[in-house]
Design brief:
DNA-binding region (chains A, B): 32-51
Number of strands of chain A: 0
Shape of chain A: globular
Number of helices of chain A: 11
GO molecular function, one term (chains A, B): DNA-binding transcription factor activity
Pfam families (chains A, B): TetR_N (PF00440)
Strand content of chain A: under 5%
Helix content of chain A: over 70%
Largest sheet of chain A: none
CATH architecture of the largest domain in chain A: Orthogonal Bundle
Protein name (chains A, B): Transcriptional regulator, TetR family
CATH topology of the largest domain in chain A: Tetracycline Repressor, domain 2
Number of domains of chain A: 2
Order of helices and strands of chain A: HHHHHHHHHHH
Radius of gyration of chain A: 20 Å
CATH class of the largest domain in chain A: Mainly Alpha
Domain HTH tetR-type (chains A, B): 9-69
Oligomer: homodimer
Chain lengths: 230, 230
């Protein structure tokens, strides 16, 4: 059988697909470069042509995972009809919509990323997401401040705090998914909805908006996210 | 030479001391159980008598590091003359005092804990600190709410958010320490002071207090912390 020649970007995407599948199945720490090349049907030389190390592959994978979700939310950020508050609420609404649309995949991803043996993977994905999100959120806060809607002493520092604060959902989501897995869907949905509501209030207060202005929560969201099949 | 018999709590404390020294020098991931027993002059059997695994030792070490700082701050929390706001400000003042008093040790600890190869160690210390701090902060917020000083919709959820938000200092402190190491003390002190001030404002706003009520920052603190010898 002649060797199939593929363009490098296809090959590296395939390697990332294989690695993602293995990391999700066994955990990052339990997957070796040998496992990945075996799964991808490539030589070690070919692997190292694309990635200097397993770490470098992890970094590329994290960036890809982070970029995928941002690409979906981009239209909202460029919508000229929205002011700062409209953009921020549209961002939360878009993120909820994506989470429900892709619920089974997202639940599995969260479940895997929050496993202790995947701490390094989670950390990288979070880093990559932060790097992508920082200029976007900073810009959003600056524009909202210039429009007189947000009271923000320092858009960049506040963007950092917002991105930090969202990480409470690492633990909250993990607890909710565990409850859901044990059949306590009501309790799981209540926890997730409640924390989203309180997170929205925290954002309101940080921007000096009245409680309930930012719509991080939405009735029925948590249940839809936790129950959407398969 | 007769074998020295020591009580188990002394032995396990010595093992923790050895492990801490090695983790700080080489990183957690680069230290093996063999390294630790060689340094401590103990057998493998003795090690496993005290700790089921390197992970279990890490957990014990994290709890000890976290508990040490809380013990120092305990008097403030039990001071009956303080109201919620007084307690919170005293907690920040106490934490600054400790950081300056132990500055060389704290700087080295932070520098080591924030190294990428010590992610697991950092994570465990943070977890242990959270577990200790959660009931304390929740109680502080609940009392302050009952006194009519803080506006807190949910003391437990807000305590979680506060503990999450403080982690912006992982990155801020790392950047400040790097700048200081490169000789840019002015810039390092400005960054740290500024972020402490903004963090204080964030806490004010989350509790619906006027900006500047919570004294997380204090003029001269960052410089004192960064410069205190040796």
């Amino acid at each position: 059988m002649p060797r199939v020649i593929k363009p490098p970007e296809i090959r590296s995407a395939e390697l990332l697909d294989c690695a993602q599948r293995l990391f999700f199945e066994r955990g990052y720490d339990n997957t070796t470069v040998n496992d990945i090349i075996r799964e991808a049907g490539l030589s070690k030389g070919a692997f190292y042509y694309y990635f200097a190390s397993k770490e470098a592959l992890l970094e590329a994978l994290a960036t890809r995972l982070a970029r995928d979700s941002f690409t979906e939310l981009q239209p909202v950020l460029n919508d000229p009809s929205l002011d700062g508050l409209g953009r921020l609420n549209a961002l939360f609404a878009g993120s909820r919509r994506l989470n429900v649309e892709l619920a089974p995949h997202m639940r599995r991803t969260f479940f895997v990323l929050f496993r202790p043996e995947n701490l390094a993977l989670f950390h990288r994905v979070d880093q990559a997401a932060r790097e992508l999100a920082m200029p976007i959120i900073t810009d959003l806060l600056r524009k909202g401040r210039d429009e007189g809607i947000f009271d923000v002493p320092d858009p960049e520092a506040f963007a950092e705090m917002f991105l930090q604060l969202r990480l409470i959902f690492r633990d909250v989501m993990h607890r909710a998914l565990l409850k859901a897995e044990q059949g306590n869907i009501d309790e799981a949905a209540r926890l997730l909805d409640d924390r989203l509501r309180l997170y929205g209030i925290a954002i309101d207060r940080l921007l000096k908006l009245p409680d309930g202005t930012i719509e991080a929560a939405q009735p029925g969201f948590a249940r839809a996210f936790l129950e959407a099949g398969p």
